[in-house]
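Form P-L/3: holo structure prediction, ligand calcium ion.
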Amino acid sequence: MKSVLLALIINNLIKYSITQSSNLFGCLITQPECPNSNISFYLYTRETQDNPMRLDLNEPTSVKNAKYAQHQPLIIIIHGYTGDKDYSPNSHLRPAYFQRGEFNIISVDYNELAKYPCYFSAVTNTRTVANCTAQLIDFIIDNEIFNIESIHVIGFSLGAQTAGLIANYLKSDRKLKRITGLDPAKPLFIRVGNEGRLDQSDAEFVDIIHTDVFDRGLLVPTGHADFFVNGGFNQPGCLQQTEMSASSCNHDRAPAYYAESINSDIGFWGYQCAHWYFYVLGLCNGDEYTSKAEMGFNTNNTVRGIYFLQVNSEPPYAQGKNHSNHDASLDGTNENSDF
Ligand SMILES: *[C@@H]1O[C@H](CO)[C@@H](O)[C@H](O)[C@H]1NC(C)=O
Ligand SMILES: *[C@@H]1O[C@H](CO)[C@@H](O)[C@H](O)[C@H]1NC(C)=O
Ligand SMILES: *[C@@H]1O[C@H](CO)[C@@H](O)[C@H](O)[C@H]1NC(C)=O
Ligand SMILES: *[C@@H]1O[C@H](CO)[C@@H](O)[C@H](O)[C@H]1NC(C)=O
Ligand SMILES: [Ca+2]
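OUTPUT (holo model):
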């Protein structure tokens, strides 16, 4: 009884402080209801890529009668903190998909709920974003517009965690086929359980690309297949770059690599290593005895484990199966690094 009371008090304290800080910055925590006026869904096909259609469950016919590309997969893209439908990863991924062929792409836009400097409320809002996205997916499946096998959800940063949360809201007999997490966000997600973040249980296959584990991204592998590019830290070319901070450059490489993988001839091939620390200690290499897996668009859903690879400092980033420079990543590391 005492502990229940304590939990209640703590819960209210947290709620209260959220409200306080929200008011302080004018941050918005949305009502947990769907459809939600601040969560929008835009459908793009090759033909309508510059002129997307809004899918709005307040008007179910807008979803039922939208002009889908028949018999093609459905990719659902979820942006992160401060993003929108035209910001990373959408800006990387949509053109690359349509260069490859015909796809249906739904870009989720919850910009109003993820504005700077409201990271804390953005994290809270992702539950409703996931709920409303799940509602749309359920509607699409119930109305036989797509079957669940043809749906692939891709989220970047906070959007990767949001993609994982969709599992908590889908009708109970449903499980997504594939979720790809592009450098899943770390702040406020280190100590939450699997129910609060992207993990293996959220889809039949979860693949994750890590590019900024020391700052914005999460170090722990939580997918079926986890790819650490350049060890998951400093991406080549990011330290020199001036337009954005090195960290946002590292972070933003995850969608850039994925986008390139969609049309790459040689591909991004990683080699397996049992643990990130073994890699950092130099105990793993890409020799012929090590198993390899391709990262990104072509990742086989049977791949399991942790993989490492190097990339070039500018596009095209992919190095194919050439792992001869696998030690290069350690050059950027020093003994004082905060492992
Ligand atoms: C949507 O955003 C606007 C502008 O920030 C806000 O006034 C409104 O209350 C929000 N509505 C919901 C349902 O979040
Ligand atoms: C999800 O959205 C539905 C529809 O608005 C709502 O009834 C339900 O309470 C929401 N669930 C949560 C946990 O917020
Ligand atoms: C995926 O991997 C399985 C098992 O290794 C293999 O049988 C299958 O051919 C692969 N699929 C593709 C598309 O490469
Ligand atoms: C493989 O990478 C190394 C180091 O970057 C480079 O010297 C070599 O030319 C590459 N080999 C091929 C076949 O591309
Ligand atoms: Ca989860």
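COMMENT: The chain has seven helices and eleven strands.
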